[in-house]
């Protein structure tokens, strides 16, 4: 391992954050020798304008509650505070500018999200200063990926059994009145109950449908 600082940037909508995300971040930190993992909840996800997403401030609060007890985890509100679409290119470029060439950056996210990475904005440029860690659920089949040679060289896959937990299943469970205990940290469970999140599947989220879809 060189002398550069190795920093993980954990991107996701986190709607809500759960133990699968936390185990992913901790496994990546250990496997790739990362000094810290910075969680970056998406502000306005570019690929979700047709769907309903819980307001960014609430997803940020849940991410803070879930990570507060781990000194190696930090939360950044840069995408939540930005009025612009949350492009990974802009986020990673801002970290690169802030941390400088002395930091080696690793963008961590779910393999399902990475499936369409070739359509992400300026992704070949991001690969100039960042590696990608794609977390897969057990039994995930990798052959469906079509990557450019540069991206193929820059993506590492990591199987995370705890990713059998999913945000969509947690939302469905809350709407159906099923328990979510032990799927996510208790303070997040309490936050969801207190704020009445996910009670109706088509409920209170923001709708980004009015804007044209540009990845
Ligand atoms: P998503 O489509 O909601 O999720 C796709 C899959 O990946 C889901 O199964 C999801 O599980 C899982 N996943 C998402 N984030 C994860 C994480 N950090 N660790 C482990 N599994 C994760 O994906 P998303 O959350 O909206 O986007 C993921 C990241 O990619 C975000 O940072 C987003 O900004 C970025 N992205 C960028 C572009 C672009 O720049 N054009 C386009 C798309 C995505 P859960 O539902 O359980 O989380």
Account of the 3D structure:
There is one protein chain. The protein has 215 residues and is of the alpha/beta class. The protein has one domain (5-210): HUPs (Rossmann fold, 3-Layer(aba) Sandwich). The chain contains 9 helices and 8 strands. Strand 6, helix 7 (149-154) and strand 7 (155-159) form a beta-alpha-beta unit. The longest helix has 13 residues, at 19-31. The radius of gyration is 17 Å and the shape is globular. The chain starts with a strand and ends in an 8-residue tail after the last strand. 38% of the residues are buried. Residues 10-13, 20-21, 24, 42, 45-47, 86-89, 108-110, 112-113, 120-121, 135, 163, 166-168, 215 line the site of NADP nicotinamide-adenine-dinucleotide phosphate.
What's this model, at a glance?
The chain has helices at residues 19-31, 56-67, 78-81, 88-99, 111-114, 123-126, 149-154, 167-176, 186-194, and strands at 5-12, 36-41, 52-53, 73-75, 103-110, 130-136, 155-159, 206-207.
Distance between the termini: 34 Å
Largest sheet: 6 strands, parallel
Tally the structural domains. 1
Bound molecules: NADP nicotinamide-adenine-dinucleotide phosphate
CATH first level: which class? Answer: Alpha Beta
Low-confidence stretches: 203-215
Share of residues in helices: 25-40%
What would you call the structural class? Answer: alpha/beta
Number of strands: 8
Helix-strand blueprint:
Blueprint: E1 5-12, H1 19-31, E2 36-41, E3 52-53, H2 56-67, E4 73-75, H3 78-81, H4 88-99, E5 103-110, H5 111-114, H6 123-126, E6 130-136, H7 149-154, E7 155-159, H8 167-176, H9 186-194, E8 206-207
Parallel strand pairs: 1-2, 1-5, 2-4, 5-6, 6-7
Antiparallel strand pairs: 3-8
The structure holds NADP nicotinamide-adenine-dinucleotide phosphate.
């Amino acid at each position: 391992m060189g002398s550069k600082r190795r920093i993980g940037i954990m991107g996701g909508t986190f709607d809500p954050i759960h133990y699968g995300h936390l185990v992913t971040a901790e496994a990546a930190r250990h496997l790739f020798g990362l000094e810290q993992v910075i969680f970056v909840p998406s502000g306005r996800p570019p690929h979700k304008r047709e769907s309903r997403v819980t307001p960014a401030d609430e997803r940020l609060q849940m991410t803070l509650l879930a990570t507060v007890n781990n000194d190696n985890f930090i939360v950044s509100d840069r995408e939540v505070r930005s009025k612009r679409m949350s492009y990974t290119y802009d986020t990673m470029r801002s970290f690169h500018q802030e941390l400088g060439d002395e930091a080696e950056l690793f963008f961590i996210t779910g393999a399902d999200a990475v499936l369409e990475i070739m359509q992400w904005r300026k992704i070949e440029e991001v690969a100039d200063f960042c590696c990608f860690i794609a977390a897969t659920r057990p039994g995930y089949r990798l052959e469906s990926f079509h990557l450019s040679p540069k991206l193929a060289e820059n993506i590492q896959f990591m199987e995370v059994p705890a990713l059998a937990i999913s945000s969509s299943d947690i939302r469905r469970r809350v709407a159906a009145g099923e328990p979510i205990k032990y799927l996510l940290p208790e303070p997040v469970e309490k936050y969801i109950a207190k704020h009445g999140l996910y009670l109706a599947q088509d409920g209170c989220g923001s709708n980004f449908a009015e804007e044209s879809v540009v990845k």
